[in-house]
Write a structure and sequence with these properties.
183 residues, alpha+beta, four-stranded antiparallel β-sheet, 3 helices, rod-shaped
Length: 183
């Protein structure tokens, strides 16, 4: 019981100073002015925080604009082409000897069907073009020419966005089939 009275006395002592009336405005006009002052202070604080966030966003935008992503995209496309080329070379290297054309009887070779030809892709557009060759994607930059090795004989290609269907063509071994992409 003594403990609860002591606790009540301590709490009362703590609460009484919290309710001082000396700072309270006396008239309704003074109360409104005090509330307006508090609102103005909060508004100023919020505006300062907004300005700080704006500065951070602008700094991020400046940092992002310094990076030239077109060069990165070009490098990604070039790496993709190299991977496709390496995969084709690997498939060719993995073929067993029985997969290659054999010499026909009589000693005459059908050399036009053995080996590889080349598809030359020339981009005369002012934008990059995508070409599908035998199911692999190639990207040709404006004004550039690339050479794609294809097996001798029939191959397919499609200029994406220009041809509705794949085009079938043929090329002899050690020969070049040229395609110009132009407006």
């Amino acid at each position: 019981m003594l403990r609860s009275r002591f606790l009540a006395a301590v709490l009362a002592g703590l609460l009484v100073p919290a309710f001082t009336f000396a700072d309270d405005p006396k008239t309704p006009q003074e109360k409104l002015e005090a509330q307006q002052k508090q609102l103005d202070e909060k508004l100023t604080k919020l505006l300062n925080e907004i300005a700080s966030v704006k500065e951070k966003i602008q700094a991020i935008e400046k940092t992002v604009t310094r990076y030239d992503l077109s060069e990165t995209n070009y490098m990604i496309v070039e790496l993709g082409q190299q991977v496709d080329k390496l995969q084709r070379e690997l498939r060719t290297a993995q073929k067993s000897p029985s997969d290659y054309a054999k010499m026909p009887p009589g000693g005459k070779s059908e050399s036009k069907k053995i080996g590889a030809g080349t598809l030359r892709l020339i981009n005369e557009y002012s934008v990059q073009q995508q070409v599908m060759v035998n199911g692999s994607a190639y990207f040709v930059n404006p004004g550039d020419t690339i050479h794609v090795s294809v097996p001798a004989g029939k191959f397919t290609y499609q200029i994406v966005g220009h041809h509705d269907a794949r085009q079938t063509r043929s090329v002899d071994a050690n020969r070049v089939f040229e395609t110009r992409m132009h407006p």
